Amino acid sequence: MIERNGTAAPGRHQVPPLVAVAVSPAYGYGRQVIRGIIRFTQTEEKWRMVLGAEAGWRGFLGMRSLQGMIALPSIGDPEAELERLPWPTVNVSGRFQPQGIPSVCADDVEIGRRAARALLDRGLRHFAFLPDADDPANRNREAGFRAELAPDGFASERLPVDVQRGGDAWRRLQRALTGLARPAGVFCFNDLMGRLASQCAWELGLHVPTDLSLIGVDDDEIMCAAAYPPLSGVPVRGEEIGFGAARCLAAMMRGRRPGFRVRRVQPGEVVERASTDLLAVDDPRLAEAMRILRDEACAGVKVGEVANRIGVPRRWLGRAFREHLRCTPHGFLDRLRMAEARRLLLDTPLTLADIADRCGLGYEANLRRLFLNVEGVSPGAWRAARKDYP
After folding, report:
1. For the structural domain made of 284-386, what CATH number should be given?
2. CATH number listed for the domain at residues 108-235+270-276
3. The 126-130 sheet, strands edge to edge
4. CB 3.0-4.6 Å disulfide test: which of 44, 107, 246, 360 passes with 298?
């Protein structure tokens, strides 16, 4: 069933173009993408839109009046058919890599890296990835996850694919979770897989987050809140993806070629909830030091001050961090401040000086120095390269 949702034509000779949005609003990512497309039509260019969630992009094949489409294909959809559609089309799924149409999608490798950093900062030493299929998006997220773990000497197990409750795959997942060394950090392909992992863990008598710390992707507010305990997630910034796809499609409908084949939008920083509320270290002094640094990193806390507050020599604190977390206390503090700086650069219009102050770095020069050390570019250049859309 196709639902029409367009604005009235402003005049007989000024009918806005008719665009199909073949994106399901059933999950958070699809809703975010649709919001981004709507924002484009409200701020840059008027469109008449048709939404067709049930039939997907195939439900529009008979509509000769269409002038363009933004599509979120389903698993199993043939790429060749999408490339032969009779109107300009933009893909917003990372699961597909069509050669003939442009794609605007999430940076799946960076999503995996963000998840790994969040779990490493909890002191975890055992890790696993739970996919939902064997496709480019799953492989890229796993590759980013593994790449971020590798410098610290950690690896990741791959859990069973195609998990369905009550079937053989569900029993394989139960066996795999039971066999993980604990406590373990489990990076799930999306929030739905995170909820399934949480449910499976509780059926096995495993506690979340004490035995398994779980992170999903999409940061779907409803999906994450409905999990028990509430699920941490990596935001994919779907609204920016939708806005960028709409801007690309508008140019194509005017006869312009896109200047890219794939544009990947940076994710947000992990939104932490109860499913990762764990400090996986045995020494209570180290755990307290980690807690203070996490809570007060952006308030300008100093490493020497933390050592004094927990009653240990600064040298002991440095040795404990290197042994358990494979980094120095200063390195741990820098990771926390970098995470907040990235979030503020992407999500706010704050000046670099204000961001430095809010991250506990004091001065813009300190923010610049940290970014050059970690990212290899200045914070201004990093923001400009990633903030493609308003």
Report:
1. 1.10.10.60
2. 3.40.50.2300
3. 157-158, 126-130, 184-188, 212-217, 232-234
4. 360
